[in-house]
User: Which sequence fits this backbone?
């Protein structure tokens, strides 16, 4: 037994999509991180099949968005079809301003490989694969983890100031801490089938929800030559029989698919849950991702919500570790994230009801109702433009509402801009994860912010010449957005959320205890990807 103590700033338990995102974020910010993961290799079952533009924006902040998008399918429509295969609701999501395609289909193991390769850029991140986090203890100074090497039973003791429990839906850490995970698990179980495409077919172009009361189904192209089907296990069916190849072919043949077109990779039966951990912060331990919340997969937001958790939490942890922000700021993680996750979950439940309704009379009514209401332009626009998609805007949290500006708590859209050097760049790449003042008027002194060393950038209209201290609003987005919010100056947090905003009023003071370090995130190019 090894009793040597290994010291870190943050320990991450769990190296799924949420843990690996946190490792990239923290690694890029230069803190010492240990990751403890039970499995020796990436989980081979592709669970998530879709993500969204805000999630890609977070992965942009770790320099991996473009590489990840190479392996994703964007711009695919979504059709809800009746029992005879006729569409009654068709969606083609339009961008909501984060600067990436609104919805992207993914192949989760390949995506996780790119994210893991990204972590290799950071010598300050140590990865302990094949290690079980056997226990977690905390005191007023830090957290102690006992990690057991599953190959030889050797035990390591790790110590850090904070711990992120990204250890999945059954989170042993949540259980060990006695934190409730209230909600419900759906009675219906679903068989999830991943296949490799051998030959394309004519209807492979989009995600189809077959809303057939006899047996609903998900039928979705996923990238890198994969295709996903999901079917509920019907009452009286034997789950084991259902995942046999014989039975799977019976299900797939119903949609015209044969072994000439696809090869079955794996089939697993899952339950759907609606659950929330009663607290997401327990002293120095933070639950993130599925450890904190579980939602049904219908709008593809379970993993994406977890990535948002990491995006919200990691820069705050680093700011507190550096003494830039007071430790109480860490309470704003749950305050900001939980309402959004709740809204996302409620929306996923609503979409699930549309898809999984099994009462024939109701499905007939549903199909007719959607066909009629989708003819109403405002309803069609609301559905098409994803007006139903919960905006990631905070009402409470690390915000200064003084002045009451409506921009406060919203994430600024991300257009392309022209930098002071004349280069075309995405806004976030210019802001580079730093607190920044962005203003559209003539320069005003904001002495408290200047004293904290916060950069101040003036937004100039499209067509302006690049000049020092400016960004040119080439897409004509930033100036209309600030005007619409009756603001002329925005104080932006590292996650490009508006901390404070002012028009005629003065900007509130910054929240810092000590001035933030200049470089918050490091933009390191992604390394070559290895094969999962
Ligand atoms: C059928 C299905 C479809 C889905 N579709 C989508 C979708 O389209 N879009 C979407 O966004 N989400 C989707 N989801 C949800 C998504 O898959 C999950 O939300 C996401 O994978 C959770 O990521 P995580 O990192 O929080 O947890 P996990 O991926 O579960 O990772 C947790 C990790 O912690 C490790 N671990 C656990 N305990 C310990 C321990 N004691 N010591 C060390 N390591 C430990 C585990 O080995 C695991 O690797 C879907 C889920 C399912 C089941």
Assistant:
């Amino acid at each position: 037994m090894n009793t040597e103590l290994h010291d870190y700033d943050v320990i991450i338990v769990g190296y799924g999509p949420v843990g690996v995102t946190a490792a990239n974020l923290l690694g890029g910010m230069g803190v010492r991180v240990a990751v403890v993961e039970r499995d020796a290799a990436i989980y081979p079952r592709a669970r998530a099949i879709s993500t969204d533009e805000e999630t890609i924006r977070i992965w942009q902040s770790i320099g991996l968005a473009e590489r990840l998008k190479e392996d994703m399918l964007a711009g695919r429509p979504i059709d809800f079809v009746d029992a005879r295969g006729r569409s009654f609701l068709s969606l083609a999501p339009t961008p909501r301003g984060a600067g990436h395609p609104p919805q992207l289909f993914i192949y989760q193991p390949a995506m996780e490989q790119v994210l893991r390769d990204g972590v290799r850029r950071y010598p300050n991140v140590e990865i302990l694969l094949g290690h079980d986090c056997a226990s977690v203890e905390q005191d007023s100074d830090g957290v102690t983890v006992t990690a057991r090497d599953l190959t030889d039973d050797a035990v390591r003791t790790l110590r850090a100031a904070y711990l992120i429990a990204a250890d999945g839906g059954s989170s042993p850490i949540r259980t060990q801490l006695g934190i409730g995970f209230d909600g419900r698990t759906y009675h219906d179980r679903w068989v999830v089938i991943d296949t490799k495409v051998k030959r394309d077919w004519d209807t492979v172009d989009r995600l189809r929800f077959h809303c057939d009361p006899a047996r609903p189904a998900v039928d979705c192209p996923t990238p890198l030559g994969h295709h996903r089907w999901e079917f509920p296990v019907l009452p009286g069916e034997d789950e084991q029989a259902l995942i046999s190849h014989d039975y799977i072919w019976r299900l797939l043949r119903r949609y015209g698919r044969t072994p000439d077109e696809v090869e079955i990779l794996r089939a697993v039966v899952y339950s759907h849950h609606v659950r929330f951990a009663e607290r997401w912060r327990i002293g120095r331990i933070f639950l993130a991702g599925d450890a904190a919340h579980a939602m049904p997969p219908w709008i593809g937001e379970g993993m994406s919500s977890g990535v948002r958790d990491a995006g919200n939490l990691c820069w705050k942890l680093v700011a507190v570790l550096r003494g830039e922000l007071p430790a109480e700021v860490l309470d704003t993680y749950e305050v900001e994230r939980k309402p959004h996750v709740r809204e996302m979950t409620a929306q996923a439940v609503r979409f699930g009801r549309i898809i999984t309704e099994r009462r024939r009379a109701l499905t007939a009514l549903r199909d007719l109702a959607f066909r009629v209401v989708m003819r109403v332009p405002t309803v069609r626009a609301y559905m098409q433009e994803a007006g139903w998609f919960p905006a990631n805007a905070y009402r409470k949290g690390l915000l200064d509402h003084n002045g009451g500006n409506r921009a406060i708590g919203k994430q600024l859209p991300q257009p392309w801009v022209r930098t002071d050097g004349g280069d075309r760049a995405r806004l976030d790449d210019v802001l580079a994860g730093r607190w920044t003042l962005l203003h559209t008027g003539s320069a005003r002194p904001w002495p408290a912010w200047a004293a904290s060393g916060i950069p101040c950038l003036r937004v100039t209209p499209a067509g302006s010449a690049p000049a020092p201290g400016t960004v040119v609003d080439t897409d004509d987005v930033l100036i209309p957005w600030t005007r619409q919010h009756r603001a002329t100056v925005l104080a932006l947090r590292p996650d490009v959320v508006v901390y404070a905003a002012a028009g005629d009023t003065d900007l509130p003071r910054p929240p810092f205890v000590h001035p933030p370090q200049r470089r918050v995130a490091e933009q390191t190019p992604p390394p070559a990807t290895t094969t999962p």
About this structure: The chain is about 25% helix and 25% strand.
